[in-house]
Write a structure and sequence with these properties.
Layout (H helix, E strand, L loop, with lengths): L2 H10 L9 H15 L9 H20 L14 H21 L8 H4 L10 H27 L9 H25 L3 H14 L12 H9 L1 H15 L5 H25 L3 H4 L1
């Protein structure tokens, strides 16, 4: 095999779930989505009800009690509930990948014994499932926006594109933490804390520009803050996203993907011995 073919093969390998292994990925995604609500009386309806209940809690806590406000509200824009909901959609999408990644291989130990099973596809069904739930929440957002303010801005169709760079980070987290979760079982205890920190130290809860300058730096380092701000632009303000910023974010995320995948592939031979 030539060096050129080897490099091209490595660059394409992390995304084989959408080519060579698409049928398997589709079935695993379907099983993941439907299996989550198996036996529940409301079934898939919980994919809408759960965010609603969380939104209610946060709206009462931060909107009514702590009186959180965004500058756009004073300009007659969407209210705090919708602004918060966009942040929760983005955070929920990412945190599902973060909290589930450490158990991807551990909970599928039977696949490790199968030499022909492509373990590298495991993060993608998780990611696609999270993407499905995010889109369900976007539909709810559109409904709420329509009831309160009429027709949403056309730029909301760009919402999935805004999420794509963060999806690459989610895939990278999947490979990295799935591998680490085999050797370091305690990592699953850390991701819950990290998820809460990513929420409360991001622009999901407060407008970063209103914070003291020494705190703004911390919030802007959060990988969710930029995506949340861009998501609000397209979903609520009717503005186009920062394409150059999203492009740079995607390039950095893609690099993270390849590093994480290389780590996963290097550590995979030891999975069977540990499990």
């Amino acid at each position: 095999m030539s060096a050129k073919t080897g490099v091209a093969g490595f660059l394409a390998e992390p995304f084989s779930a959408f080519g060579q292994h698409w049928s398997l990925t589709r079935e695993l995604t379907k099983r993941d989505v439907l299996g989550r609500y198996r036996g529940a009386s409301f079934g898939l309806l919980w994919s809408v009800l759960s965010p609603f209940l969380m939104l209610l809690v946060y709206t009462v806590a931060f909107g009514s009690i702590f009186k959180s406000r965004w500058p756009q509200q004073s300009e007659g824009g969407p209210d705090f509930t919708l602004i918060l909901f966009v942040g929760l959609i983005v955070h929920g999408f990412f945190t599902e990948c973060l909290t589930r990644a450490p158990t991807l291989v551990v909970s599928n130990a039977n696949y490790v014994k199968r030499v022909v099973f492509p373990l590298e596809v495991l993060p993608w069904p998780m990611l696609l499932s999270a993407f499905f739930h995010a889109l369900m929440n976007v539909l709810v957002l559109l409904l709420l926006f329509g009831l309160r303010f009429g027709v949403p801005p056309w730029t909301v169709v760009l919402f999935p594109l805004v999420l794509l760079p963060l999806a690459l980070v989610g895939a990278a987290i999947g490979w990295l933490f799935a591998s680490l979760g085999v050797y370091l079982r305690d990592i699953n205890q850390v991701t819950g804390v990290a998820s809460a920190a990513l929420l409360f130290l991001s622009s999901a809860m407060v407008p970063v520009d209103t914070l003291p300058p020494n705190y703004q730096f911390v919030f802007r380092l959060n990988p969710l803050s930029f995506i949340i701000d861009e998501a609000r632009k397209v979903a609520l303000w009717g503005q186009l996203p920062d394409w150059s910023g999203l492009g740079l974010y995607a390039l950095a995320a893609l690099g993270f993907c390849y590093v994480s995948y290389a780590w996963f592939r290097a550590t995979r031979p030891g999975f069977a011995d540990v499990l």
